[in-house]
Amino acid sequence: MSKTTKRVMISLLVVILLLIIAIHLILPVVDLPSPKGKYQVGTQLFSFTDNSRKEIYANSNTQRMLPVQVWYPTEEKFCRNKEPEFYMEKESCKNFERVLGIPYLLRHLASVKTNSYKEVPISNQEHKYPVIVFSHGYTGLIGQNTVQMETLASNGYIVFSIAHTYEAAESRFPDGVSIPFSEEQTNKLDDD
């Protein structure tokens, strides 16, 4: 191998290494802040079907289906030996990037862990808890305010967040089915 080829190879490796370091500095995998309330946080994903109306955004003759995620107070004993949930699925990151028009910039969010534990029992320290319903905006996400949901749940609130199927960046259902935002489908209403 000639000296010139070696220099080019070394220079290329240095540039690649610097790019990798820069990406990790610009887009770090962050830790979400720990909620300060007295409770640990549980979470579950549900799906509801409104049999009284058709899905206006779908081409098929289906009923309106909505995923709903709930955050709630739980106890530390229920969370032992469990890992907290990740902030987003890899596919969810891709769908969100597509909606925002920024490919590859949000993939690291699939590595961010929340402070919520999946499908653990609700705390029985109280007989009832106040309820809050959260509805994201157009092209938003069911868990876009996870830090806020966890803070509320850690302070004794039950928080429900509804994803608006076809209008959200993504609607993920408990069975793993994912329905991404569909500008084509939502624009059909404007055409009518």
TrEMBL record:
Domain of life of the organism encoding this protein: Bacteria
PANTHER family: PLATELET-ACTIVATING FACTOR ACETYLHYDROLASE (PTHR10272)
UniProt xrefs under SUPFAM superfamilies: alpha/beta-Hydrolases
Listed name of the protein: Platelet-activating factor acetylhydrolase, isoform II family protein
Natural source organism: Clostridium argentinense CDC 2741
Entry's Gene Ontology BP terms: lipid catabolic process
Xref: Pfam families: PAF-AH_p_II (PF03403)
Presence of keyword Protease: no
